[in-house]
């Protein structure tokens, strides 16, 4: 990974960490998580919700996680009981969140594409915030 790409990825991880903290979550960022191959990028905790995020900021039409890393993260999910979501940030689009199990196997990687991203969760859904229906106005 180039120095620029690594800085860009770190920037987006920190942005997402800040967004979660603003909503009352405690968030731990695993420094160098991409290099150790074991830890998800962010571990997100509250009294009612616990999950982890593997963050990708890619402008490509698809995003990949190496098969070995996917297998390690799947084992991490089972051991901790905490789901891991792929958090995908594409240019000029909001974050999209996909369960790790929804990625499809493709050779030596697991892949999420545009179609899967469209079916993904938005920020409010992944943090467990229910969207409120519009209020009726009375005359």
Structural class: alpha+beta
The tally of structural domains comes to 1
Q: What is the number of beta strands?
A: 8
At CATH's second level, what is the architecture?
Answer: 3-Layer(aba) Sandwich
CATH topology: Trna Endonuclease, Chain: A, domain 1
Strand order of the largest sheet: 1-2-3-5-6
Order of helices and strands: HEHEEEHEEEEHH
Distance between the termini: 60 Å
Name the quaternary structure: single chain
The amount of beta strand, in percent, is 25-35%
Rough shape? globular
Average pLDDT taken over every residue: 85
Rg, nearest Å: 16 Å
> What is the CATH class name?
Alpha Beta
The largest sheet is: 5 strands, mixed
Q: Classify the helix fraction into a percent range.
A: 25-40%
Unreliable stretches (pLDDT < 50, length at least 5) are 132-139
SS summary, helix count:
5
């Amino acid at each position: 990974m180039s120095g620029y790409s690594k800085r860009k990825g770190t920037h987006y991880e920190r942005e997402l960490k800040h967004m979660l903290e603003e909503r009352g979550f405690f968030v731990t960022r695993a420094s160098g998580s991409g290099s150790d191959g074991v830890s998800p990028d962010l571990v997100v905790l509250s009294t009612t919700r616990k999950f982890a995020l593997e963050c990708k900021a890619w402008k490509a039409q698809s995003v990949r996680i190496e098969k070995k890393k996917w297998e390690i993260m799947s084992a991490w999910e089972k051991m901790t009981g905490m789901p891991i979501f792929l958090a995908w940030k594409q240019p000029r689009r909001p974050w999209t969140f996909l369960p790790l199990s929804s990625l499809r196997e493709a050779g030596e990687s697991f892949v999420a594409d545009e179609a899967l991203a469209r079916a993904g969760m938005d920020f409010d859904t992944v943090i467990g915030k229910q969207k409120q229906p519009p209020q009726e106005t009375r005359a």
